[in-house]
Amino acid sequence: MLRRFIDYYKPHRKLFFADLFFAFLLAVCDLFYPMIAKNIINEYVPDKNLRLLLIWSAVLLGIYLLKAGTHSGGQNAGGYAQRCVPQAAKAAIFFL
Q: Is the dihedral of CA 39, 42, 43, 44 positive or negative?
C-alpha cells in the first residue's frame, strides 16, 4: 500500500522534497529564534552591550524574514502537491 502511495508522488518528487526542505528550514528557524531572543534578554540588555544587541536583533529579523519566505514557499509547493497527488490517485482508481 505504501508503495502505491509513493508511486503517486513520483511525478511530483521535486515538489515533495521542496516541501520537506521548507518544513525542515522552518523548524530549524523555530528552534533558534527563542534561544537567540533569550540570550539577548539575559546577556546583552543587562550589560548594555548595544553593538551585540543590534547585531543579534538583525539576525532575528533575518530569521523572521526567512521564516516568512519559507512559510510562503512551503505552502505553494505543498498546496500544489496536495492538489496533484489526489488527482493522480483518483485517475488510477478510475482506470483500474
A: positive
